[in-house]
Design brief:
The complex is a heterotrimer of chains A (about 425), B (about 325) and C (about 240). Chain A has about 425 residues and is α/β, with parallel strands linked by helices. In chain A, about 35% of the residues lie in helices and about 15% in strands. In chain A, the strands form five sheets. An eight-stranded parallel β-sheet of chain A has the order 5-15-14-12-11-8-7-6. In chain A, strands 1-13 form a two-stranded antiparallel sheet. Chain B has about 325 residues and is an alpha+beta fold. In chain B, strand 4 and strand 5 form a beta hairpin. In chain B, helix 6 packs across helix 7. The longest helix of chain B is centred in the middle third of the chain and has 12 residues. Chain C is of the alpha/beta class and about 240 residues long. Chain C contains three helices and eleven strands, in the order βαβββββββββαβα. The relative contact order of chain C is 0.08. In chain C, helix 1 links the parallel strand 1 and strand 2. The chains are: A alpha/beta (about 425), B alpha+beta (about 325), C alpha/beta (about 240). Chains in contact: A-B, A-C, B-C.
Chain lengths: ~425, ~325, ~240
């Protein structure tokens, strides 16, 4: 028999075939964790023009490169002061195990930054572990209460997130155990669907009154963030500012979740790179850039990602998925347990199952024991420290004594898409795609 | 995202000042709509063979040129500058053939000869004034402190997707004596627009609210009554909308099927007043605390007509019995 | 604290606060200060439909509003005792944890949104989405409620003496709803259930508190059918309407 070459259809690829057959089995949309898996233009497509003869690079150590940032300077009596421009994004207790939440809190405290609650309320252990805690106000209002509100260091009104802008939350029954159900006032074991809109306001004109309510309830002490998934970024950012936001938190499509319909992750929202650029333009166009701070999230993985985000105009970044990976998500251990889920390390996005082999995205006590808090803390703290050192190295090499002095002109693009989206010249040319 | 208000008087209301009453309703809404504001006032009615137009221009116009151009359209002409900066004019024309006036052709000809001039409103009663900035500024600029009329609508704007400028502000108009103000967002605007454009409507902005005006005008051109037109609109328009529409003798309030944007109705022996927020009504001079104040439900249409002055409430096919 | 002599002793139980010259922030600050001083009643004049009054209150001092209030009155309160002589705007008592709110007038949309505990009584109509996302509180409306009442209700009790608009209890998780008048339509996973003796006792008690008799009404009970708790492909007929 002659040896034939196997031809693969691009339209009906193995993945597409699998997806069709999955739908045929389930009779509903597919659900999974993580963010967009597909390839999109990202920060990798940008490069730094570090110092040569033009620009003076700074030495390490004594030639300081500072990293502090203050968020929420507009109205709050106690704005959020951070030692580093990297925060931990909102992830719910329920989606994550207690040990994961506490580990994140302790690591953030070591580095002088904040963590954020999630779609499930404030876990007392997290408040204790985290010196700076941002309290999310979500459409579901699960566990939301005025007492926790007064314990918060900032409030984040969640309009949506990058993985599923316009979609509500989802937590499948196997993760709605007694504790989680109690915190969320739900029947145990139910497949929980969160609403996609807030119950007590609709539209930015009404959001304005809601933000005033939150300020009154907290005596105007703490800043109010507004978090959105990146879609019509320019209009959304301007409206959020007009409604009274002190800080804009914008989440690109690479941003993760523990569970949502995969159609949202892959087909809604725009990537973090163009989202950031549009958000900065929007703030500049209405003259509030610098007074209303901008936090960007969605697939931030490394020091270069952070540095590029700062150079493009973000005041800080927020990290979700990567902090879990630092703790052990997708680590090649407990291999049989990955296989039981139908996946392998480095390929797992099965947070929705609640059977996380490394004890992060689960409510199973036995699995959670695989994630001791001290170990989780050290790993995340090390990771954050590594990021900070990487950002400082790049900033010093660009001649900056503060990482926030990184600017657009320090960057060039490698691809046409990145050039168009970031409005930066293609490396080695004067050509900006689209200009 | 915005604030809306409207007033229709019962009877002659000689002692009330329409512009001031509307201003009282609109000022508290500046917090929901800080960017710009506008009013559509139904004032002194012209005779059957007269048409009133409000023209606005960004740049100076040589009046003689405009006069010369307009004259052939009409058997008589009256020209009056309105406002402080000599950029707006109230024009009254006497038509040679009062039964026929091709508004579309007129607008095209105007755009061709005087591209800097905008036709803000046309009809026998309606006058539309709109500006970037606060309500007080608008009233002052156009000398509307003593404008008397039978009914009117107003708006304060927080721009959502389109530009902040005068022409993107509300009220929007499409045909004679037709004005609308809208709070919300039409989510199938582009589809509607392409259908209406193919039917001959000319859109001047990319503000979704404008589609409501053209949609209704299109219905009127097909001889549908206001009530029928509004029922169809509830089926055809998607998204969130609480809006007021006014014609030469009617005002109607429509709320979308999700009741997403607010509105309160005040009904006293003197008038019917509508505002996005309750506390605006308290601002009215001579606020009658015994007046009926109610909130329309989702999908509810309310029409008030000056002809019989009868309150006509038309609900979308549902049997809801009022019990209180 | 100085020991008062008999002739000097003044005991202040009630204070009147006039909103007219004050900003909303000043009103709320004064409210909190007066509550902390141990007052029993605060009488508020000229609220004039303002938003965000009595937000974030922690003490059940009695606060009486002599006039209509705007949106979020009594919102984010841990423990309140409010009485409003007038209408109120959106989201009355949102996220209430404990306490009582009584309105002599109509309430607008989202009354009692996400309220966890306590009782909200509206002697009038409530607008659309009354009791949305209710999490354990009791919401009583003597008049009618509008569209989308008790949307995604999780726990608690909604009692409506009058009629209810379309889509009652859409996507409800748990809790009980009693309707004295007509129900326009039910939402996804909501169903009628016969009333038990305990239910009638509850209604008698709750209505007596506002001077009404439960037996005068033809109450119907609506609860979660619990058929949509877990998705099952073969139950597509049931899921179709939910989508």
């Amino acid at each position: 028999m002659e040896r034939r070459v196997l031809k693969t259809s691009s339209t009906f690829s193995p993945e597409a075939i699998d997806a069709i057959q999955e739908r045929a089995k389930l009779g509903r949309y597919m659900i999974r964790g993580y963010g967009a898996l597909r390839n999109v233009p990202r920060f990798d497509d940008l490069l730094f023009l570090t110092a040569s003869l033009t620009r003076l690079p700074l030495e390490g150590y004594r030639e300081k490169c500072t990293t502090k940032i203050v968020l929420g300077t507009r109205h709050a009596k106690r704005p959020m002061e951070l030692e580093i421009p990297i925060t931990i994004a909102g992830m719910s207790f329920g989606a994550l195990s207690r040990n994961a939440k506490v580990g994140l809190g302790k690591a953030a405290t070591l580095l002088g930054t904040s963590t954020t609650t999630g779609d499930g309320g404030m876990l007392a252990d997290e408040r204790e572990a985290s010196t700076k805690l941002v309290y999310q106000c979500l459409p579901s209002r699960y566990g939301f209460n005025p007492r926790d509100l007064k314990k918060a260091d900032a409030i984040e009104i969640v309009i949506g997130q990058g993985a599923k802008p316009g979609g509500g939350g989802l937590l499948l029954g196997q993760k709605v155990n007694q504790v989680v159900a109690g915190m969320r006032t739900l029947p145990e074991g139910v497949d929980q669907r969160s609403p996609c809109r807030h119950p007590d306001w609709i539209g930015p004109d009404d959001l304005r009154i809601k933000i005033e309510e939150l300020r009154e309830a907290t005596d105007w002490e703490i800043p109010i963030y507004v978090k959105m998934g990146a879609t019509r970024v320019k209009d959304d950012v301007k409206l959020a500012v007009k409604s009274g936001a002190d800080v804009i938190v914008l989440d690109g499509m690479e941003g993760g979740t523990a569970a949502t319909q995969s159609i949202f992750q892959e087909h809604s929202g725009i990537p973090t790179l163009p989202a950031l650029v549009q958000a900065v333009e929007a703030l500049q166009e209405i003259g509030v850039y610098g007074q209303v701070q901008l936090v960007i999230s969605g697939g931030i993985r490394s020091g270069p990602d952070v540095a590029k985000a700062l150079a493009l105009g973000a005041d800080a970044v927020s990290i979700g998925t990567a902090s879990l990976i630092a703790m052990g998500c997708n680590k090649p251990i407990y291999l049989e347990d990955y296989q039981k889920l139908g996946t392998e390390p480095h390929h797992c996005h099965h947070c929705h199952t609640g059977l996380c082999p490394v004890g992060i995205a689960t409510q199973d006590e036995a699995l959670m024991e695989r994630l001791p808090i001290e170990q989780a803390t050290i790993h995340v703290a090390n990771y954050l420290q590594a990021l900070v050192m990487e950002v400082q190295s790049l900033a010093r090499a660009c001649g900056k004594s503060d990482v926030h002095n990184l600017e657009r002109e320090d960057l060039v693009a490698l691809t046409l898409e990145a050039s168009a989206m970031a409005k930066l010249p293609l490396a080695g040319t004067d050509f900006i795609m689209g200009r | 995202m915005c604030g809306i208000a409207g007033i229709i008087y019962r009877g002659s209301a000689k002692q009330r000042c329409l512009s001031l009453d509307l201003m009282k309703l609109l000022q508290p809404l500046e917090s929901r709509g800080p960017d710009s504001c506008g009013v559509g006032l139904y004032g002194e009615s012209m005779a059957f063979d007269q048409l009133k137009m409000i023209l606005r221009t960004e740049e100076q116009v040589v009046l003689e040129d405009l006069w010369d151009w307009l004259l052939p359209f009409a058997s008589g002409l009256e020209f009056k500058p309105v406002g402080q900066d000599s950029h707006s004019y109230r024009v009254v024309l006497w038509w040679q053939d009062p039964d026929y006036f091709d508004l579309g052709a007129f607008k095209r000809a105007l755009a061709q000869n005087f591209p800097q001039i905008h036709l803000m409103s046309v009809g026998q009663q309606l006058e539309i004034y709109k500006e970037v900035g606060p309500v007080q500024g608008l009233i002052h600029k156009y000398g509307l402190e003593e404008f008397k009329g039978s009914h009117g609508i107003g708006h304060t704007r927080m721009a959502t997707e389109s530009v902040v400028d005068t022409y993107h502000s509300h009220p929007f108009t499409s045909g004679f004596d037709l004005s609308i103000v809208h709070n919300g967002q039409i989510s199938n605007y582009y589809r509607l627009r392409s259908v209406l454009e193919r039917r001959g409507m000319v859109f001047e902005t990319d503000n979704d609210s404008e589609a409501i005006a053209h949609y209704l005008n299109d219905q009127f051109l097909q001889e549908k009554s206001l009530e029928e037109a509004l029922h169809r609109l509830l089926k055809d328009l998607d998204g969130t909308y609480t809006f007021l529409v006014a014609t030469e003798d009617k005002m109607a309030l429509v709320r979308d099927k999700f009741a997403a944007k607010p509105a309160m109705i005040y009904e006293s022996p003197e008038m019917v007043a509508i505002a996005s927020e309750y506390h605006c009504l308290l601002n009215l001079e001579g606020f009658d605390s015994t007046a009926a104040i109610r909130e329309p439900d989702a999908g509810e249409i309310n029409i008030w007509s000056r002809q019989e002055f009868s309150l006509k409430r038309a609900r979308e096919a549902r049997k809801v019995v009022s019990n209180l | 604290m100085k020991e008062p002599s008999v002739s000097e002793q003044t005991i202040v139980h009630e204070v009147t606060l006039d909103c007219a010259p004050l900003s909303t922030r000043e009103i709320n600050q004064q409210l909190k200060a007066l509550a902390a001083e141990g007052l029993q009643t605060i009488n508020i004049l000229n609220p004039a439909g303002r938003h965000n009054l009595a937000v974030g209150v922690t003490e059940p001092v009695k606060i009486q509003f002599q006039g209509p209030v705007g949106s979020y009155c009594g919102g984010l309160a841990e423990n309140v005792n409010l009485e409003i002589f007038g209408a109120c705007g959106w989201s009355l008592g949102e996220n209430l944890m404990l306490g009582d709110i009584l309105v002599h007038g109509h309430a607008s949309s989202n009354a009692g949104a996400s309220a966890h505990g306590g009782t909200i009584r509206i002697l009038g109509n409530a607008g659309p989405r009354a009791g949305i996302s209710l999490k354990g509180a009791t919401l009583l409306v003597t008049g009618n409620v509008g569209y989308g009442a008790a949307f995604m209700m999780q726990q608690g009790c909604l009692i409506v003496c009058g009629n209810v608009g379309p889509n009652l209890a859409d996507s409800i998780y748990d809790g009980s709803i009693f309707v004295g008048g007509a129900v326009d339509s039910l939402g996804a996973d909501a169903r009628f259930e016969p009333l038990s003796e305990a239910d009638w006792n509850l209604l008698t008690r709750e209505l007596a508190a506002v001077g009404l008799v439960a037996q005068d009404y033809d109450f119907k009970k609506v609860v979660c059918a619990k058929e949509l708790y877990h998705f099952k492909a073969k139950d597509w007929a049931k899921w179709k309407d939910a989508y």
